[in-house]
Automatic annotation (TrEMBL):
Keyword Oxidoreductase part of the UniProt annotation: yes
Family matches, as PROSITE patterns: ADH_SHORT
Organism taxonomic ancestry: Bacteria, Bacillati, Bacillota, Bacilli, Lactobacillales
Enzyme class: oxidoreductase
One Pfam family from the record: adh_short_C2
Protein name as annotated: glucose 1-dehydrogenase [NAD(P)(+)]
Molecular-function GO terms, alphabetical: glucose 1-dehydrogenase [NAD(P)+] activity
Length: 261
């Protein structure tokens, strides 16, 4: 636990399930005040709120589409009106779909880019505007992926969005470093959440996936949430512009495992 996080106010987008929900719950354990954003799953968001409050934090669930300015404004307003300020903004919401690139509809491309990349831009801009106006040394965390670095055939739009998140994070981290506003990404590997539930249900797919992870297991949302808590805390006070990979070694060319090659 990080003592400096007590009573800090955070917005977490896509907080109703998966990694976002785990981050909300971890922030609850840190006794933080959390705006739990959801898009359609209000029930999941209310579960996160209950869990945060059970652990001594405070929380409110707020509906918003991260790809709209209006939605982002609503989240900021909720933080200020409910908890009086904003210290941390986590751009976690994301989506993926799969298609060979020659069959990928413009609509699919735009949908993924709008949530995964435009959503990160809008959330970051909203938080930065508030931090600048109120001279807050705020903290922004963007949910990227190992696919900001590893190409992923049939997920070109997803990989492009996460590659965009990487350079966006590095650029804004540099831009606002003189004001002590820290901006980092987290790059999860394969984490078991609703986004990939189908893959894990098929034993063959699961085996293939595990063979690509040197630690030979998929990750848990709580393991990503632990990285978010560290990045949000003062324990990472000299860290900005990085991607903290939480991937069991997935990026380490696992096909060379055992001295092959
Ligand atoms: P998930 O599907 O369980 O959760 C995604 C969340 O984003 C949901 O709460 C969903 O409602 C929300 N969301 C989607 N579109 C939205 C919109 N327009 N407005 C507001 N919220 C919206 O997936 P997850 O695995 O928890 O993914 C969370 C993040 O982690 C995503 O950015 C994803 O790309 C990233 N990630 C996940 C994995 C993994 O293996 N699970 C790996 C790498 C990166």
């Amino acid at each position: 636990m990080y003592k400096d996080l007590t009573n800090k106010v955070a917005v977490v987008t896509g907080g109703s399930k998966g990694i976002g929900k785990a981050i909300c719950e971890r922030f609850g354990k840190e006794k933080m005040c959390v705006v739990v954003n959801y898009h359609s799953d209000e029930e999941g968001a209310q579960e996160a709120v209950a869990e945060i409050e059970k652990n001594g934090g405070k929380a409110v669930a707020v509906e918003a589409d991260v790809s709209t300015e209006e939605g982002m404004d609503r989240l900021l307003k909720a933080a200020i009106e409910t908890f009086g300020s904003l210290d941390i903004w986590v751009n976690n919401a994301g989506m993926e779909t799969q298609k060979p690139t020659h069959e990928l509809e413009l609509e699919d491309w735009e949908k993924v880019l709008k949530v995964n990349l435009t959503g990160v831009f809008l959330g970051t801009k909203t938080a930065l505007s508030y931090f600048k106006t109120h001279q807050i040394k705020g903290n922004i965390i963007n949910m990227s992926s190992v696919h900001e670095q590893i190409p992923w055939p049939t997920f070109a739009h997803y990989a492009a969005s996460k590659g965009g998140v990487k350079l966006f994070t590095e650029t804004v981290a540099m831009e606002y470093a003189p004001e002590n506003i820290r901006i980092n990404s987290i790059g999860p590997g394969a984490i078991k959440t609703p986004i990939n539930a189908e893959k894990f249900e098929d034993p063959k797919e699961k085996e293939i996936l595990e063979s690509m992870i040197p630690m030979e297991r998929v990750g848990k949302p709580e393991e990503v949430a632990a990285a978010a808590a560290w990045l949000a805390s003062n324990e990472s006070s000299y860290v900005t512009g990085i991607t903290l990979f939480v991937d069991g070694g997935m990026k380490l060319y696992p096909s060379f495992q055992g001295g092959k090659g």
